[in-house]
Amino acid sequence: MNVYNELLYNNLESFLLACFPVLHQLLGARKWGKLVRDFFAEHRCHTPFFRQIPDEFIQYVQSERGVRECDPPFMLELAHYEWIELVLSVSNKETPLSQIDPDGDLAGGYPALNPILALLQYQYPVHRIGPKFKPQTPPSEPTYLLVFRDQDFIVQFIELNPVSARLVALLQSDKLSTGQLLENVAQELNHPDPQIVLQGGLDILYKLRAAGAILGSWRK
């Protein structure tokens, strides 16, 4: 029975190690092993597919296990950040490239957001956490990250400021022209010189297109 127990544990752990390498490194062998065995013993998986084991693990950590005294304060956010990379890398969501002009007029058109994308907000700068940076308290400002899969099927991330995060959120919620998008943001900010907001916002959109987070403009 011990042999079978170790085989099952090792099989399960191998899928989790592939998805959560930073969390494993920071917890160390003993705490990581305890976490995996608790997951194995306490969580009832609802899928037979090995590829979805990390999904079940995130559900267990966030909703069932609860925060424990021995956990790093950033553990839940770090685990979620690492998991999102897997989610986007295996996404089968289709990109309607025939409806998008990659060289379209971004300033006068309707920006087409990459559909394989996640806009994230964390208390901790999870993208910088590692063996040499383990913050014990969150900074005063939240961290905004845009994670997406580019046309080469590589998952990329961009750190955003609050304005660029708001632009992406508006693009996610509705198909807006660049003019409508930037006017909405300028009104929300109540900036004394809206033209500065409009130009700055347009510069952000161009940078997002160059990075692959915006694929171009929707064809008319």
Features:
220 residues; alpha+beta; Outer Surface Protein A, domain 3; 2 domains; 3-stranded antiparallel sheet
Unreliable runs: none
CATH class of the largest domain: Alpha Beta
Q: What string gives the helices and strands in order? A: HHHHEEEEEHHHE
Indicate the CATH architecture of the largest domain.
Answer: Alpha-Beta Complex
- Spatial gap, N to C terminus: 65 Å
**Count of separate DSSP helical elements:** 7
Mean pLDDT: 89
Domain count: 2
- Helix fraction bin: 40-55%
Oligomer: single chain
Largest sheet, spatial ordering of strands: 1-6-2
- Strand content bin: 5-15%
- Biggest sheet, in brief? 3 strands, antiparallel
Structural class label: alpha+beta
What is the third-level CATH name, the topology of the largest domain? Answer: Outer Surface Protein A, domain 3
Overall form: elongated
List the helices and strands and how they pair.
Layout: H1 2-19, H2 21-42, H3 53-65, H4 75-89, E1 100-101, E2 111-113, E3 117-122, E4 143-149, E5 155-160, H5 162-173, H6 178-189, H7 194-211, E6 214-218
Antiparallel strand pairs: 1-6, 2-6, 3-4, 4-5
Question: What does the model show?
Answer:
The protein has helices at 2-19, 21-42, 53-65, 75-89, 162-173, 178-189, 194-211, and strands at residues 100-101, 111-113, 117-122, 143-149, 155-160, 214-218. It has 220 residues and is of the alpha+beta class. It has two domains: 2-71, DNA polymerase, domain 1; 97-218, Outer Surface Protein A, domain 3, CATH 3.90.930.50. A three-stranded antiparallel β-sheet has the order 1-6-2. A three-stranded antiparallel β-sheet has the order 3-4-5. A hairpin with a 5-residue loop joins strand 4 and strand 5 (155-160). It starts with a helix and ends with a strand.
